[in-house]
Amino acid sequence: MVIALELLNTAIEAVVDLASPAFHPLAKTAKDTAAAAILVAAVGSVIAGLIIFLPPIWKLFL
Prior knowledge:
The chain has helices at residues 2-19, 25-61. The protein contains two helices and no strands. Helices cover 89% and strands 0% of the residues. By secondary structure, it is an all-alpha fold. The protein has one domain: Helix Hairpins, CATH 1.10.287. It is rod-shaped and about 60 Å long.
């Protein structure tokens, strides 16, 4: 999921650069929002990994 969002972010950045080659505040907002979506997905992936793998790892050391 994170890799798919990375690809989508790259596409969004390319389209924004094509549509607005000069600096524009809305272009910055679009890029920042796409990057934030990746951050949220990455944090969610880490949390899901901890929920799945932490209990078995915890049992190994107790």
